[in-house]
Each structure stands twice: as structure tokens, then as C-alpha cells.
Design brief:
With 614 residues, the chain is α/β, with parallel strands linked by helices. It is built from 20 helices and 27 strands. Bound molecules: 6-O-phosphono-alpha-D-glucopyranose.
Length: 614
């Protein structure tokens, strides 16, 4: 949801900013722009609709000199994506330039007031009011830029990560954040600024994460100074990033999404490392053990999340209820935060998020904590806002996920939820010892079985070519595989723009069956576990209406294979771990259909990886 980047140092800023924008392009790619204080101390702003490469073309013959600059890649909220609405925005006198990620909710009131004072606005964005307001306050009070930013932000309602530079001042960037992420990189005589660490890691691994309502003054040759908008001086520990540059490259794959699908065996093994011990027959998550009493006493667990993470949450519900016998409710964070939910002291809220920055999930956490719940986070991005705002939690440790459609983060979330369910089950004695032992062994084998599942890639590609004609798809699954059906359908619609619906297989007869004809591909997740026979009946219902059945089956299952038009055989595993394997062919099916259709799988239209606005 918009990526921002900044540089102040001894090198030319422009190439660093452009490279940074490319790294952040997964956050938004409607338009992009850059502002530089050039070698003549002039403030230059260049912006273009489209991708970062369009901005590069636009600036080919422009003056891009300067060792200080800020840049932005946009995912439009207020105002259509065009050159004018792209960031950075100039202030009225063109002496300030500002970039922003977030939404200023009270922009209309501020704008009206500034218009009355003679300000003229160029764009339809909420952002432009900030830069105008800062200039107004700065000139009216005759104060420094940093003080004006501080004062202006006391008037702003909403979310922001901003950076501002000024004409005639090649030595300073003022930055601030609230509810949108911002990281400052500290190099040798140089500073970086970005929405996440990916544009920074190439230059330094030393970073400061700003907290909400903090304003940072970054000055050439000086230490970063941080104050809150209410003028309280803050000191921050410099953190060391554990991220390698290789993780940010495609590594020979045509797309990040395919790379990330293929990384799953390795990444899932990493997510389990130190947490599962087959010889000792133990599973232990520090976050759960450290808060053992709370989990033992919990009357209920609420899971809040959005998108793919919400699907992982549904699998978590099945796992925790089945193994640990604690009632679980799963909610969209966006609904939870606004519907006045009943939250009791002693409730545990598990918040799941790949990015750790999703605005609705953050707000749901805030509400839960305010009402006395204990909040446990499952996040991927280390140091992001959600882990910093939860009582405890577990990282998924799958490295940066750059493809907008989530793949490895999803299977890692399900893995961590499996570990959580097993750890609590053991603590509560709600699981038979032999069942526990069997699950420990089986979970440890999942990475190898994922490798085997990935060998199906060629076959899935062939199936994908057959189905590019489809306008609609139905995905069906029961039990643990119902959320897998939802996730499979989401993957397909996100990247191929084919309409797809996921349904609990038995619900099909209450509506979706009306859609089935010879044109309709129906993906059925039908492993030989759980409600196998019942799922076979559902397949028969589809066949009777001439639907085209693509089944995900257990290796060697001739019965469903014969009934299906196409089938994909995955290795056998415990029922509760089938989602970890069955998701992979669905990711590959969506991927190949999208590629064959010529879609941009890593940056699908209208989507962003990190949704920092509600
Ligand atoms: C966006 C992304 C999805 C993601 C969802 C929740 O919609 O495109 O891939 O599942 O946000 O994001 P989170 O980072 O909280 O998991």
C-alpha cells in the first residue's frame, strides 16, 4: 500500500531511490515519483503514471543530480492513478516536497480551511493537504521544518508514514509515522529511509524502527533525532537486520511467486527448526510455553486476520479445536474491529499477518488489548508493527515474500498453527500420546513431501493450459480442506482475474450447483482422509451435471482418479496436515493459468501486498 524510500549521504541519490522503489514495488505500482534537492540546491520533483520503469523513462533527459532525495510508489486510495496524483507532492510555493503512505482521514476539513486561506491544490489526494499544512504552519510561525511537521501532524487524523525535504536544504530529511511502517537505515555517513528494510539491506543492516507519532530528523553528519509529535524526546536502540540480499532476488525463477512456491520445503523446515524434535517426541513454541497458564486457562481463542492469513486462521480453528479442545472463532479483522465484539478478560486473540502491517489487523489487536485479551501474533516480517504490538507470538521465518499472492507465508502460518495446537494439546493432555507421536513424525516429514508435490509442476502446467478459457472456477473441500478451497480460489482470482469461488463441498447443493455445466471447472480437494466418501458423493453430483472435475487426491487413489477428468496426486499425510500439501498444486495451477494468460503474476492489477490502509 504505497512504498516510500529516502536517501541522504555522499552518493548520488537517484539510482539508490530507483532501486529502492523497485524493491518496494510489491506495495503499489499505479504510479511513481521522486524528489531531489539537486546540485544547485533546487527542489526537483518528477513523477509518472505506471510502474517505476515508466518513471525511469520519464527522467531520462532530466536533471537527476543530488545526494538527497525521497521517492514513492503508489497504490491509489484518494484520486485516480495519474501523473498529478502521484507523489511526491509540492507545497504551494514549491519549496517542500512530501511523500506519504497511509490515509489522512480528516483531509477534507484541513483542505477546506487551507483553501479559505488562499491555498490552491493540484491533486485529488489526501496527501497534498499535509504538505500544504506543513508549509502554512512553517511560514506562519516562522519555525523550522521539523517543528512544522510536528505541529501539522497533531492535526492529522489517520495513518501516515511521511518524508519531507526542502528547497535549499540538501542536508535534511524529516520523516514521521503513525500506523504505517517506516524504517531508518544507518550507514557510514549516509541514511536510508523505507517502508520496509528491503531497499536498505544492500547498504546497511543497522536500522531504527520508528514508533507511532514519532518524528525523525535526519541530518547529514549528525545522529538521527527523534521526538514525538507532542514533543517528547525519544531514543531508539539500533537493531541489526537478519536479511540477505539473495532473498530479494528471483534467483533464476521467472517470477517471485514461482520462486516462493518452490521455497516452501526449505522454508517450512526453517519454520519448524528448534520447535519440533522427532527423537524426543516434543513440540514446543517458546511463546506458548512462556505463557502456559494463560493457554491452559483460556476459555476461548479468537483468531483475527485478513486475506490469505484469514484462510490460515480457519485451518488454525480446526487444528486447535480438534487437538487442544479450546473453542475458536475466526474473524475478519476488518469486521471484528467495528462490530463491538464481546471480548472477555482471559480470552486469547491470535493475530495472523504476513506483513505485520495490515491496518485492520493492527486495529483489531488494539481493540482486543484494550479489552483485556492476551494477544499472540503470528507474523513473518521481523520487527514489523504487529509483533511490536502483541503480548507474545511466533515468527513464521520464511524470509521476504515479494509476490503479491501469498504462498510460502500461508503454508508457514499453517505450520505454526499446527505447532501451536500441538503444544497446547500436549500441555492440556487433550491428545493421546500415540496420536501426538504420530503427528510429530508426520509434521517433520512435510518438507520432503512438499518437495515431492512440487514434482507435479509439469503436469499442472499442462492442465493449466487446458483451462485458460474458463471464466469461472469452483473449488470444493470439506473439513480441513474447505479453507484450502477458499485459498485456491483466492489465488486464482488474484492473479488470473478468473472468477473463482471456494465452497465447503456439501454446501454446493445450496446454490453453486446451479452454475455447473460442461464449461465449469470444479477443483475438488479429495484426499483419502476425513469425509472421503462424502466428498466422492459431491464429485458425483458435479459429474452428473457435466462439470469438469480436477481432483487433488492421495497418491494411488484410483477411485477418485477414475471419477475425475483430471487428477493431481499428492503424498499421503495426516488429515490435519493435508492443507500443507494440497495448497501447493492449487498455487501452481493459479500461477500457470495466469502466466499462460499473460497476466503479471507478481504484481496483479489493483492489489498490494501490504494493506496499510483500512
Ligand atoms: C493483502 C495481500 C494478501 C494478504 C492480505 C493480508 O490482501 O495481497 O496476500 O493475505 O493482504 O496481509 P497480511 O500481511 O496481514 O497477511
Amino acid at each position: 500500500m504505497c512504498g516510500i524510500v529516502g536517501y541522504l549521504g555522499n552518493k548520488e541519490a537517484y539510482p539508490i531511490l530507483i532501486k529502492g522503489l523497485h524493491r518496494l514495488e510489491y506495495r503499489g505500482y499505479d504510479s511513481a515519483g521522486v524528489a531531489l534537492v539537486n546540485n544547485n540546491n533546487e527542489l526537483k520533483v518528477y513523477k509518472a503514471k505506471g510502474k517505476v520503469s515508466d518513471l525511469e523513462n520519464f527522467t531520462k533527459d532530466k536533471d537527476i543530480s543530488g545526494t538527497i532525495g525521497i521517492a514513492h510508489t503508489r497504490w491509489a486510495t484518494h484520486g485516480e492513478p495519474n501523473d498529478v496524483n502521484a507523489h511526491p507532492h509540492y507545497s504551494q510555493s514549491n519549496s517542500l516536497a512530501l511523500i506519504h503512505n497511509g490515509i489522512i482521514e480528516n483531509y477534507a476539513i484541513i483542505k477546506e480551511d487551507l483553501i479559505k486561506r488562499g491555498f490552491k491544490f493540484q491533486s485529488d489526494t489526501d496527501t497534498e493537504v499535509l504538505v500544504q499544512l506543513i508549509e502554512y504552519i512553517k511560514n506562519k510561525n516562522n519555525i523550522k521544518l521539523s517543528d512544522a511537521v510536528q505541529l501539522a501532524l497533531t492535526q492529522a487524523v489517520g495513518a501516515y508514514a511521511i518524508a519531507v525535504i526542502e528547497k535549499g536544504n540538501p542536508d535534511q530529511i524529516v520523516a514521521a509515522r503513525k500506523s504505517s511502517p517506516l524504517v531508518i537505515g544507518i550507514g557510514d555517513d549516509e541514511f536510508f529511509l523505507a517502508s520496509d528494510a528491503t531497499p536498505i539491506i544492500e547498504y546497511t543492516n543497522r536500522v531504527i524502527y520508528l514508533d507511532d507519532e514519532e518524528v525523525a530528523v535526519i541530518k547529514r553528519g549528525k545522529e538521527v533525532k527523534i521526538k514525538t509529535i507532542s514533543n517528547v524526546v525519544k531514543t531508539h536502540e539500533i537493531k541489526e537486520l537478519e536479511l540477505s540480499l539473495n532473498e530479494l532476488e528471483k534467483g533464476g525463477f521467472p517470477h517471485f511467486m514461482l520462486k516462493e512456491i518452490y521455497e516452501q520445503p526449505k522454508r517450512i523446515a526453517e519454520a519448524m527448526r528448534g520447535r519440533i524434535n522427532v527423537e524426543g517426541n516434543t513440540v514446543s513454541l517458546a511463546g506458548i510455553i512462556d505463557n502456559k497458564e494463560r493457554f491452559l486457562e483460556a476459555k476461548r481463542i479468537l483468531i483475527v486476520a485478513c486475506g490469505t492469513s484469514w484462510h490460515a486462521g480457519l485451518i488454525g480453528e480446526y487444528l486447535i479445536e480438534e487437538l487442544a479442545r479450546i473453542p475458536v472463532e475466526v474473524e475478519y479483522a476488518s469486521e471484528f474491529r467495528y462490530r463491538n465484539p464481546v471480548i472477555n478478560k482471559g480470552d486469547i486473540v491470535i493475530a495472523i499477518s504476513q506483513s505485520g502491517e495490515t491496518a485492520d489487523t493492527l486495529a483489531a489487536i488494539e481493540l482486543a488489548r484494550k479489552n483485556g485479551a492476551f494477544v499472540y501474533g503470528i507474523c513473518n516480517v521481523v520487527g514489523s508493527s504487529i509483533p511490536r504490538n502483541t503480548d507474545s507470538g511466533s515468527y513464521t521465518h520464511v524470509g521476504p515474500e515479494i509476490g503479491v499472492a501469498s504462498t510460502k507465508a500461508f503454508t508457514a502460518q499453517v505450520t505454526v498453527l499446527s505447532l501451536i495446537a500441538m503444544t497446547i494439546a500436549k500441555l492440556k493432555n487433550t491428545i493421546e500420546p500415540c496420536h501426538f507421536e504420530c503427528l510429530v513424525k508426520e509434521l517433520s516429514l512435510i518438507p520432503e513431501k512438499m518437495k515431492k508435490t512440487l514434482e507435479l509442476n509439469e503436469k499442472i502446467y499442462e492442465f493449466a493450459r487446458i483451462f485458460t478459457y474458463a471464466k469461472n472456477f469452483i473449488y470444493l473441500g470439506r473439513g480441513y480442506n474447505y479453507p484450502v478451497a477458499l485459498e485456491g480460489a483466492l489465488k486464482l482470482k488474484e492473479i488470473s482475474y478468473i472468477h473463482a469461488e471456494g465452497y465447503p463441498a456439501a454446501e454446493m447443493k445450496h446454490g453453486p450447483i446451479a452454475l455447473i455445466d460442461a464449461e465449469m471447472p470444479v477443483v475438488v480437494i479429495a484426499p483419502n482422509k476425513g469425509m472421503y466418501e462424502k466428498t466422492i458423493s459431491n464429485i458425483q453430483e458435479v459429474k452428473a451435471r457435466k462439470g469438469k472435475v480436477i481432483s487433488i487426491i492421495t497418491e494411488g487413489d484410483e477411485t477418485v482418479k477414475k471419477l475425475s477428468d483430471y487428477s493431481i496426486e499428492i503424498p499421503e499425510t495426516e488429515e490435519c496436515f493435508v492443507p500443507l500439501l494440497a495448497s501447493i498444486p492449487l498455487q501452481l495451477l493459479a500461477y500457470h493459468i495466469a502466466v499462460v494468460k499473460g497476466c503479471n503474476v507478481d504484481q496483479p492489477r489493483n492489489l498490494a501486498k501490504s494493506v496499510t490502509v483500512e
